[in-house]
Amino acid sequence: MRLLLALMLIFLTTNIYAKIINSIEYEGVVHISKSVALRMLEFSAGEEVSDKEIDLAIKKYFKQGYFKDIRAEVEGDVLTFYFVEKPLISKIEVEGYKDSDKEFKDNVIRIKRGTLYDEKKLEAAKQRIIDAISQDGKIDSVVEIKKEYLENGSIKVIFAINEGEKIIITKLDYSGVKGIDSEEFDSVIANKEAQWMGWFYGRNDGKMSLADMSYDHLRIRDYYMQYGYLDAKVESPFVKVDFNDYTASMSYQIKEGEAYTVNKITLLQTINVIDEAKIKEVVTLEENKPFNIKTFREDAQRIKTLIADLSYAFVQVVPDLKKNVKDKTVEVVFRITPGYKVKIRNVLIAGNTRTLDRIIRRELYLGPGDMYSLTDLTDSRNSLGRLGFFEGQTIEEKRIDNQTMDLIVKVKEAPTGNIQLGGGYGSYGGLLISVAVNDRNVWGSGINVGIKAEKSETTRNYSFNISNNRLNDSDFSGNFSIFKSEYTYNDYTVKSEGISVGSGHRFSRHISGYVGYGYSKNKYDLDDDYNTTSTTNFFFESYAKSAVTMSAKFDNTDDYYLPRKGFTLSQSFEKSGLGAEANFFKSRTSFGFYRGLEEQIGFDAIFRYKAKYNISVDNGYLPVAERFYLGGIGSVRGYQSYALSPYIIDENGLYRRVGGEQSFSNSLELSLPLVPKAKMRIVLFVDWGLIGDADITQISRGGYGAGLEWFSPVGPIQLMFARALNQNVGYSDTAIANGLNDNTSNFEFTMGQRF
User: Fold this and answer.
1) Are residues 528 and 624 in the same domain?
2) Claim to verify: residue 42 and residue 140 sit in the same structural domain
3) Rounded Cα distance, 70 and 80, in Å
């Protein structure tokens, strides 16, 4: 009887608050619909519902993360849930650190507008900000999260950031270094000891980079292995920070061991697909020479390329080292697993919103049905880059099976059609304005059309040109142009008008040739007060020119505007005198070398060397306008265009610039990233040029300076600030008094020209 009473009491207690609910309603819910909310319940309308079940339902709704408060009321047979939703974040602002950096907000804060306000997510973002600042070497940073309720009920979140202090490394010690000069480690590590005038380019500022702290000791060890020290051990650095002045001292413990010599090079092919002798031709490590880990890796890549060019796309080259600790020698082993030969199934093109598919396909050296070649793939990427039509291009290899792959070409269109503006200012020519309507890729066809107008106090140029580098998608090219120009010098003006046509042919991937014909009429207008003499009459006779030009060019660079590897070499010959007064022979040679330095120094620096050599031979009449001049962008910056030239002294004792029969100019440039996201770079340069007649060193001038290179949305822009070197050296006081001083130019800019 007692047991029965106890069971009845439990049953009554459990169900005393249960009630039949015939209707379930929701108030204040937006983020989930009523139908979804009902499906989340463990009960339905028309059933008995207890308070415990209602509490469980509230907890389940809370887990969705949308709500700030939830309560439930029962009136009669109606159950109503009341929701207070979390507010939306409608604005996110950053104060004190990278205020307007969208990439920082996307990658570090990671909270989007329109998301629900969540304290935990905000705290996580706060910690990510502190971590990001600490990676820049700054400690004791403070991030405060502020919130403002807006009239529409949403919230504006403000991350108020107070950057910490940068740690400066004032002392860096190495213990155990014997075989290598420790100063050489500065070329590979990021955390370096501060030097005097560390703010100056090329000096060490000593700022600590915490992100690199875990890798610097590995970089030092790798450097040792480039000199054969395979047993070298480099411990993580011991760092001592003085928080009073935020300086630090660092020390490395190093055990060098001894340098190893290569005693044998072994090639192991799982399947013999190529003669071993051909593989050894690409291996640059040498027996009985010190081991070099860098050369070792490069050899592995060269072997992979060699075999991948035989269509073994999935070849694996696994390098191995067998050390003999006793005699300090090492056997170098390359284990080669070629896999199967691979055929290209499809070539798919994506991202070309403007450029026609066929324009891209004709630059590819691999197509459907072709056997794979790694060199062909690399050359295809570079060929697309040299077009100058795209901001970026990649070719992805999509593996279908062991013997088949697809190539997916992804491009991002660059602005090729634009209104170009260029100019400069000099003491001689004043303000120069150049306006051009140009499209290097009309309607995505690969055809180049341009109209140009240029005007200054001394120059007027008007031209139209049209060219097609691949006539009917062949290896032949064609061009046509007409022009009219005026160049005003000290006391005369050269007026020219003419026409030119030509055709070229691409003989190989990197070599092309060209043959063209041009005809022009040229006359001189002399100032009213200019007294002609027999000497000046010879130089300033009006003339017609009929000339044939032949040229050849080698170009294996990887990009049109900003090449980071490769070189260009071009040679042209011009012969005039074909039924016209001008009769001369010209030779023009140009060279360009480009090298990206990111592997060596850790950021996207580019070294460039450019040189031009021109020479002319007078076969009867070489007019002044056909001679060579130096100065300005493209030759010697710091001097105005055409400012550098040999001169004559006429019968009146006046000095006249008449151009040179030969000239040479060259430039050293270092291009450094300034704002990578905006494709903005800074360039440091030194130019030097020589010009003369029989003696090319007759005039020697240079210039140096810095400039801004910006691949803007409307085309490439260059702003150059230069100072002249060797100004006026070689001129007599009389010559300078007669106006033959060097016309310098401290600032020039161009738009629409390649860097």
Assistant:
1) yes
2) no
3) 11
